[in-house]
Amino acid sequence: MTKYASSLSSFPCVRCNKPYSPARRKLGITVCLVCGELEARAVKHTVAPLNKSNYMLMSREDLKQLNPKRTT
């Protein structure tokens, strides 16, 4: 068994329990690449221009708060 393979098996993904890269573990990421992609796609964001400002990455709830005329 190589050094890389033995270090890979010591870091199981918290979602699927499969081993993932030690480099991701060093960054503080606790999920494998596939599960991380699924988590990222589950969150919906959009880019909106703000008045007299730049473009900002916002969630749906942030956009609702920007429109004062909206009641719900």
Distance between the termini: 59 Å
Alpha-beta classification: alpha+beta
The proportion of residues forming helix, as a percent range, comes to: 25-40%
Question: Strands of the largest sheet, in order across it?
Answer: 1-2
Which band does the percent of strand residues land in? 5-15%
Question: From N to C, what is the helix and strand string?
Answer: HHHEEH
**Number of separate strands:** 2
Major sheet, described briefly? 2 strands, antiparallel
Radius of gyration: 19 Å
User: Could you name the ranges where pLDDT drops below 50 across 5 or more consecutive residues?
Assistant: none
Number of helices: 4
What would the principal axes of the Cα set say about the shape?
A: elongated
The average pLDDT score comes to 78
Structure description:
This protein has four helices and two strands. It is an alpha+beta fold and 72 residues long. It has a domain of 40 residues. Strands 1-2 form a two-stranded antiparallel ribbon. The model has no long low-confidence stretch (mean pLDDT 78).
